[in-house]
Amino acid sequence: MTTELETFCTPEGGWTTGDLDRLPDDNRRRELLDGILLMPPPPRTSHQKVTARLTAALDDMSPDGYVAVHGVEVRVSNSRTFVPDGVVLRVTGDDDGHRHWFAPSEVVIAVEVVSKGTETIDRVLKPALYAQAGIPYYWRIETEGALEVVTYRIDAVNEVYTETGRWTKFVDTGEPFPINLPISRITPRVR
């Protein structure tokens, strides 16, 4: 009998996206950083609500040729893959809607919702890696206190993001397409 611990022993040479594809589909979020398996804990309910409301709002605003989703992988390389909290993707005619991973070249906006325990990852590590992968826009949602959306555009020459705005009432930007999003629309409702 194989125990769960044995199942998750690091393969010789490190983990690959092929190794991830062979694991059971158990709804766990798995990411790879240079062959090291990362298994972040499931997001809290408030985090999930912000993510769901944001991706629904962005999907509603997206022009033809774009779609906003959450829970999909962005495969940077065979040994590096991440699951942003949300993404806006360019869609093509051959996309059947059944894919669970996308290349960085298909991602227009990567979104991370900062939670307790992910501050450094969402504010420093992931933006650096997403910029290095060439993803044109990065949005960071700060959740401590009132929601704040911080938007970035890539400086492709230097492979870093430049801040383009801090939004506490509404996001009003023309990049990558016109977006006028009241922050209240992504704020979880109090019941």
From TrEMBL:
It holds the Pfam family Uma2. Residues 19-145 form the Putative restriction endonuclease domain. Keywords: Endonuclease, Hydrolase, Nuclease. GO terms for molecular function: endonuclease activity. Signal peptide: none annotated. PANTHER family: SLL1072 PROTEIN, SLR1083 PROTEIN. This is Uma2 family endonuclease. It comes from Micromonospora ureilytica.
